[in-house]
Amino acid sequence: MFICTLALVACSTGTTNVSEGKSPKQMVEESFAKWYGLKSYDMDMIMNMKFSVGDEALDMSMTGKGVIFQNPMKMKMVMETTIPGMGQKMTIEQYAEQNAEKMAVYQNIENNWQKITFDDPAMMETMYMDPKDNLKLFMDHLISAEIIGEEKIDGKDALKIKLVASGDIFDQIFQESAGDMLGLGNGLISADVFSQIGDMVYTIWVDKNTLDTLKCQMDLSENMRNLGKALAEEPNMPAEVKDIFANAEIFMEYTILNPNNAQDFTIPEEAINAPEMELPAS
Fold first, then answer.
1. Residue 31's closest CA among 158, 152, 207?
2. How confident is the model at residue 2 (pLDDT cuts 50, 70, 90)?
3. Which InterPro entries match (predicted)?
4. Please, are residues 71 and 40 in contact by the beta-carbon 8 Å criterion?
5. CA 104 – CA 266 distance, rounded (Å)
6. ω before 72 within 30° of 0 (cis)?
7. What distance in Å separates the CA atoms of residue 65 and residue 77, rounded to the nearest whole number?
8. What's the CA gap between 268 and 255, in Å, rounded?
């Protein structure tokens, strides 16, 4: 989820639109705020994820469609992926719902429903970072916002914008959300590994007349390969982990549709009544 909420928004100048006369940084902030100010929207998603495990390539790529409501958050995602090593298609259906007290996530794979409930505030924050926090995190590390072209997206005039955030952002993200899992807390790796990942780059298409986000892309392949190289220098890191990151490919593309006009949905009873998955012990 975190990676999904990191996708940012930007906009630029035009002769008869609300972006005229604003700096790229102002446009980024306003467009990002507008996206996360929506009550609802639909989303098409493409996610390519490939890793190496021994002599085999592990392809976890997927496509999906989502319906997102915000404040409070309610989400539906239907994703299709190919089972690694089998070539068989698999559909994953997910729902999520959050209120002030808890967050519930439901998942259906092969007609097998499961749910997990988070009622700890710290865990809820980790699972679903507030969009305003995402905005501050990215803008605190923003290096540049550059218009690199114009295109038609779904019949709309769009500005293609490249955003670059300093690689320091990865240092903060990994240490706060995944440092212990990767071995930071137990001395398996050194703290400066994450500073070697490189800058974060987004490509975003924004409606030049309305500032609406139309599409955004994020390619983390080079960043993950840099992480693999950094891990290779760590004497305590198992060789298998080094290899997994060394040839990683991670690419995500999101298309935003029907702003403030998404169709509401009901979480199925099978999901609500599904067996509860236990959270791992802290």
1. 207
2. very low
3. DUF6612 (IPR046720), LolA/LolB/LppX (IPR029046)
4. no
5. 14
6. yes
7. 6
8. 26
DSSP 87-117: --EEEEEEEEEE-SS-EEEEEEETTEEEEEE
Tokens of 161: 């914008």
The residue count of the chain comes to: 282
Q: Using CA atoms, how far apart are residues 170 and 186, in angstroms rounded to an integer?
A: 19
Report residue 6 as tokens: 């990191």
What is the reported pTM? 0.81
C-beta of residue 27 within 8 angstroms of C-beta of residue 19 = yes
Cα–Cα distance measured from residue 107 to residue 113, given in angstroms and rounded to the nearest whole number: 6
Alpha-helix runs per DSSP H in the chain = 2-6, 24-36, 121-127, 131-140, 168-177, 179-182, 221-232, 239-246, 269-272
For residue range 192-234, list pLDDT tens digits in order: 787 888 999 988 888 888 888 899 999 999 999 998 888 888 8
Question: What is the CATH T-level fold of the domain 2-58+129-260, as seen in this structure?
Answer: outer membrane lipoprotein receptor (LolB), chain A (2.50.20)
The DSSP annotation for 193-225 comes to GGGGS--EEEEEEEETTT--EEEEEEE-HHHHH
Q: Which long-range contacts (CB under 8 A, 24 or more apart) does 139-147 make?
A: 139/25, 139/28, 139/29, 141/165, 141/166, 141/168, 141/169, 141/172, 141/200, 142/25, 142/28, 142/166, 143/199, 144/24, 145/10, 145/24, 145/25, 145/27, 145/28, 146/24, 147/12, 147/24
Please list the residues that pair with 230 across neighbouring strands.
none
The pLDDT of residue 128 is: 59
